[in-house]
C-alpha cells in the first residue's frame, strides 16, 4: 500500500476519506494541520498527526491538500515545498463516476468529486477542487488552485484564473474570463469578464466588492498555467472489469472502459 497524508482537518478531508475507504492501493496514514489543538483529534476516523512540519517524518508518503479555499491551498503548497514536498509527491483524486474524456486533463493534487462532467478539451490545473455536479464544457480552462463549488456550470471556452472561487451553482457564460483570485457568489449568472480579485454576485452578476488590498499569494499568482496540450495525453488501457471495484481513483491508478484524458 502507498501511504497518503492529507493536509487540512476539514470537511473536504472527510469527503476525500469517504472516497478512499477500502482503496486497494492508497492508505491514509494521517492528517496534517497547523491549527493549534488539532493534534490527536480525528477526522473521518483518521488521526491528526500535528502541523505540516510532520510531513518530513513521512518521506515516502504521497500528499493531498484538502482545503476549500484556493489561496490557502497555494500557501500550503508553498510551505510544503519549503519542507521538501515537490509536485511529484501529490496525487489527484477523481471520483469513479467522473469520465475524463480523451483531450481533457486534470493537474496534480486536484480533487474532483462525484457527478462532475467534463465534455471536451477541458483543462484543469494543479490543486484544483471541483465539487459535486460541476459541469465543464468544451475548451474550458481552469487554472491552478481554483475552487468550483457544487453545481457550478461553465459555458464553452471559459477561463478561470488561478485561485478563483466560484460559489455553489454559479453559471458562467461562454467565452467569459474570470480573473485570478476572483469570487463569484452562490447562484450568480456571469455574463461578462470579472476582473482579478473582485467579488461578483447576482443575476446577472454585478460587482459586490472591489479587489482587496492584499495581493494574491505570490505562489498562486506566479504559478505558470498548465500547458500540456491535450493531444499528448495517452489513452489509458485499464480493462472495464477493473472499474466497479475501485471506490475512487488516485493517480497513477487508472480506470475507465472508455478512452481517457490525462490525470497527473
Ligand atoms: C458572495 C459571498 C462570498 C459574499 O459573502 P460576504 O462577503 O460574507 O457577504 P455578505 O453575506 O455580508 O453579503 C453582502 C451583501 O451581498 C449580498 N449577497 C451575498 N451573497 C450573495 C449572493 N450569492 N447572491 C446575491 N447577493 C448576495 C447580501 O445579501 C448582502 O447584501 P446587502 O448588503 O444588500 O445586505 C457569499 O455570500 C457567497 O456566495 N459565498 C459562496 C458560498 C458557497 O458557495 N459555499 C460553498 C461551500 S462548499
TrEMBL record:
Molecular function GO labels: transferase activity
Coiled coil: none
Domain PglD N-terminal: 4-80
InterPro entries tied to this protein: AcTrfase_PglD-like, Hexapep_transf_CS, PglD_N, Trans_hexapeptide_repeat, Trimer_LpxA-like_sf
Pfam families: PglD_N
SUPFAM superfamilies membership: Trimeric LpxA-like enzymes
CDD domains noted in UniProt: LbH_AT_putative
Keywords: Repeat, Transferase
PROSITE patterns: HEXAPEP_TRANSFERASES
UniProt-annotated binding residues for substrate: 68
Keyword Amino-acid biosynthesis part of the UniProt annotation: no
Listed NCBIfam families: NeuD_NnaD
Protein's UniProt name: Acetyltransferase
Species annotation: Cryobacterium serini
Amino acid at each position: 500500500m502507498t501511504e497518503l497524508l492529507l493536509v487540512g482537518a476539514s470537511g473536504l478531508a472527510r469527503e476525500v476519506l469517504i472516497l478512499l475507504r477500502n482503496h486497494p492501493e492508497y492508505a491514509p496514514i494521517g492528517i496534517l494541520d497547523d491549527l493549534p489543538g488539532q493534534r490527536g483529534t480525528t477526522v473521518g476516523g483518521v488521526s491528526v498527526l500535528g502541523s505540516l512540519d510532520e510531513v518530513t517524518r513521512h518521506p515516502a508518503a504521497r500528499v493531498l491538500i484538502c482545503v476549500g479555499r484556493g489561496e490557502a491551498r497555494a500557501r500550503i503548497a508553498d510551505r510544503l515545498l519549503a519542507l521538501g514536498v515537490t509536485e511529484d509527491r501529490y496525487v489527484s483524486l477523481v471520483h469513479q463516476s467522473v469520465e475524463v474524456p480523451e483531450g481533457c486533463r486534470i493537474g496534480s493534487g486536484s480533487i474532483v468529486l462525484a457527478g462532475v462532467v467534463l465534455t471536451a478539451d477541458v483543462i484543469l490545473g494543479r490543486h484544483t477542487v471541483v465539487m459535486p455536479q460541476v459541469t465543464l464544457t468544451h475548451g474550458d480552462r481552469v487554472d491552478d488552485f481554483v475552487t468550483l463549488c457544487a453545481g457550478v456550470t461553465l459555458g464553452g471556452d471559459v477561463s478561470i484564473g488561478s485561485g478563483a472561487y466560484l460559489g455553489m451553482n454559479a453559471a458562467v457564460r461562454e467565452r467569459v474570463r474570470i480573473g485570478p483570485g476572483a469570487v463569484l457568489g452562490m447562484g450568480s449568472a456571469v455574463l461578462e469578464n470579472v476582473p482579478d480579485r473582485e467579488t461578483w454576485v447576482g443575476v446577472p452578476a454585478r460587482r459586490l466588492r472591489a479587489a482587496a488590498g492584499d495581493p494574491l499569494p505570490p505562489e498562486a499568482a506566479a504559478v505558470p498555467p498548465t500547458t500540456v496540450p491535450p493531444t499528448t495525453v495517452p489513452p489509458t488501457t485499464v480493462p472495464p472489469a477493473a472499474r466497479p471495484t475501485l471506490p475512487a481513483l488516485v493517480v497513477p491508478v487508472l480506470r475507465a472502459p472508455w478512452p481517457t484524458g490525462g490525470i497527473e
